[in-house]
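Shipment paperwork, digital attachment
Item: protein structure file
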Amino acid sequence: MLYDINLRITYTYEVPVSGGRHVVRVLPVSLPDRQRLVAGTVTCTPGPEERRDSIDFFANPSTSILFRKQHEKLVIRMQARVQLEPQPLTADFSPDLAAFPAEIATVWSLDANSPHHFLGASPRLPEDTAIASYARGIAKPGMTIRQIATAICAQIHQDFTYDPKATTVDTTPREAFKLKRGVCQDFTHVMITALRSLGIPAGYVSGFLRTIPPPGKERLEGADAMHAWVRFWCGTTIGWLELDPTNNILAGMDHIVVGHGRDYSDVAPVIGVLKSYGSHKTEQAVDVIPLQ
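Attachment content:
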């Protein structure tokens, strides 16, 4: 399956800003036997005085940009063509929870895909007793790791309401859990926290999701936004799988990966600092266009 993806992020500042330095992570990543970046570009208006393209620890493409001149608006654009490969259906060979610690202990690697990076607390995801209790109530004796993750995903989807006005990018998992409302970032953070509380390695996936308009309605250009879902480790036989708690589905041919991390802080589309005062306005528009 081929997709053309167009992303535009616009920052409009109340007063001119200067001295801005940002790291941009919006370009889809190439993944063996899953996803191939055919071509892609990241551009900025105005053009930065300095730019460096690199790959971070978790193998995500990143672009560092520096602005010295004053500017009232910053527009970041990404255009990419991505090819996705269908993933084979596999039987559940994941161990049960009791046998899982011994299997994790057999992994000696500390590379980007090592489950050890995704077990403990991370910058955005501290341990939480309420979410841990919630997870223990879902995980039943004898369930496999995959069954537990699938059950937690379904329960979050059932208990939480998608509400883009209920939370912000800085809302903590504890706050979202109390509200039982939020967006894909909140659903994902709560599920990761729940899985880790049981000793199941879990991480954050940032990407794009193709949306299909209702019957009889035309697709709105630029109406989509970036998406997030959960990656969890099922043991040495199966490895990593991905679940989307916002939609209660396995990540599939409509999920295009931009990056992997421990939580949102590792894969935020744009992070940085600048010299300014006053407020600013942010707009994001995404088009995910299937070509075949």
